[in-house]
């Protein structure tokens, strides 16, 4: 493996990539600027080739292989975006490859990997998490001699991904105050950090992880990379159970802080990006801008804050779940178990005396038990405003019905999402 990555390596990678990748736009977000009281800029890597920054690292590494290494082919593990970057690079460079993906990888990403590979790339589904797929890809490399192309934990990958940093500085209308970067295995934030710390050391760098896959946060607390016991794969582009051995010390030494964001907040930001800015972002692509909202108050009024919109490979079939998670996060949708007596008028009482104007039933799943006096129902209620919950709970307490709230995070709630 090449030596540690530095600013010069990032600049050399930028020269390799300049005629290949897109110089993605840096756009002003009036919405987010108004929320945080500073100027927020969005680096649109969702408009990159393959709709993700990952192609920067994959192409940089593969293009630097020897003829003998290219003849052996390449292999990688991916949650989807790195695999697309490798597939596009293979097609461009005429190299055969295999991409291992976990079973939770969205269908849209799987189909794009095969399409971008143009017949040179094979797709293999292995396990339910990125780390299982990664182990299978490593085993493939050892068995066949194919060159393993890491998605983050290699100086060549890191340098390629870090080429976003000089673009940011060149495109920004003034000196950057803060750069907010999504974190999975740490390749992107490490690449940006090594270049910024050498060339623009005053820039604040904030990494952002999903709270259900906070492997860098765990590594920083433990003093080194550790494997998470559980990984929530909803933010699939950043659902990494163990960060890299190469990326960890870079993040530890050069990144100012790493924060976490709830999946519901990510979903809310995805919808706002789409409905206000017309930006299609996948969950990992909305991590940085979701975090900026929660960092409001930490920026001077004249600050320039750049967020990396890291990817836009979102499967449209996921939007139902995204809307649901967003509503729950905002406190607008709530679920209850209601025990209705099996007698006339029970439901009428609930509708008339428990619910108020602006409170709508969006789910009603009732199971009648012939030999029992009561029948349970799962009831989902949507509110006009989150503040209305207190009044609803008061009316439920006053009702003769037995009503139990299903709180987010409970085992039962997982059946709803």
Summarize, please:
This is L-threonine dehydratase. This protein has 17 helices and 14 strands. The chain has 417 residues and is an alpha/beta fold.
Would you give an account of this structure?
- The chain is an alpha/beta fold and 417 residues long.
- The strands form 3 sheets. The chain has a 6-stranded mixed β-sheet, with helices on both faces.
- The mean pLDDT is 92.
- Its cofactor is pyridoxal 5'-phosphate.
- One of its GO terms (molecular function) is threonine deaminase activity.
- It is an enzyme of class 4 (lyase).
- InterPro entries: ACT-like_dom_sf, IlvA, Ser/Thr_Dehydratase, TD_ACT-like, TrpB-like_PALP, TrpB-like_PALP_sf.
Main traits of this protein?
417 residues, 6-stranded mixed sheet, alpha/beta, single chain, globular, 4-stranded parallel sheet
Ranges where pLDDT stays below 50 over 5 or more residues in a row are: none
Helix content: 40-55%
Count up the helices. 17
Output the strand order for the largest sheet: 1-2-10-7-8-9
Largest sheet: 6 strands, mixed
């Amino acid at each position: 493996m090449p030596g540690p990555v530095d600013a010069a390596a990032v600049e050399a990678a930028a020269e390799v990539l300049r005629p290949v990748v897109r110089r993605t736009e840096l756009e002003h977000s009036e919405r987010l600027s108004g929320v945080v009281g500073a100027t927020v800029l969005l680096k649109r890597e969702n408009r990159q080739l393959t709709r993700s920054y990952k192609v920067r690292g994959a192409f940089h590494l593969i293009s630097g292989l020897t003829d003998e290494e290219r003849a052996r082919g390449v292999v990688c593990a991916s949650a989807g975006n790195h695999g697309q970057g490798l597939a596009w690079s293979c097609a461009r460079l005429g190299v055969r490859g295999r991409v291992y993906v976990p079973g939770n990888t969205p269908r849209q990403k799987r189909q794009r990997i095969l399409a971008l590979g143009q017949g040179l790339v094979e797709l293999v589904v292995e396990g339910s998490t990125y780390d299982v797929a990664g182990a299978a890809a490593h085993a493939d490399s050892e068995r066949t001699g194919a060159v393993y192309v890491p998605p983050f934990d290699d100086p060549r990958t890191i340098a390629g991904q870090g080429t976003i940093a000089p673009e940011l500085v060149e495109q920004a209308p003034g000196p950057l105050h803060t750069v907010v970067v999504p974190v999975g295995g740490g390749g992107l934030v490490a690449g940006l950090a090594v270049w910024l710390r050498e060339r623009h050391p005053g820039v604040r760098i904030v990494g952002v992880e999903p709270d259900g896959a906070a492997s860098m946060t765990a590594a920083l607390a433990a003093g080194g990379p550790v494997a998470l016991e559980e990984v929530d794969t909803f933010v699939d582009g950043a659902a990494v159970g163990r960060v890299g051995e190469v990326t960890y010390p870079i993040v530890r030494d050069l990144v100012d802080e790493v924060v976490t964001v709830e999946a519901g907040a990510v979903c809310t930001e995805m919808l706002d990006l789409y409905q206000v800015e017309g930006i299609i972002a996948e969950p990992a692509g909305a991590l940085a801008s979701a975090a900026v909202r929660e960092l409001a108050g930490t920026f001077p009024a004249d600050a320039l804050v750049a967020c990396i919109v890291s990817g836009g490979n979102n499967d449209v079939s996921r939007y139902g779940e995204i809307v649901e998670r967003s509503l729950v996060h905002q406190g607008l949708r709530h679920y209850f178990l209601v025990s209705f007596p099996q007698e006339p008028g029970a439901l009428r009482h609930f509708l008339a005396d428990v619910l108020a104007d602006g409170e709508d039933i969006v789910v009603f799943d009732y199971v009648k038990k012939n030999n029992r006096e009561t029948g349970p129902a799962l009831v989902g209620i949507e509110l006009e405003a989150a503040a209305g919950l207190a009044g609803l709970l008061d009316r439920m307490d006053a009702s003769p019905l037995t009503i139990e709230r299903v709180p987010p995070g409970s085992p039962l709630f997982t059946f709803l999402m």
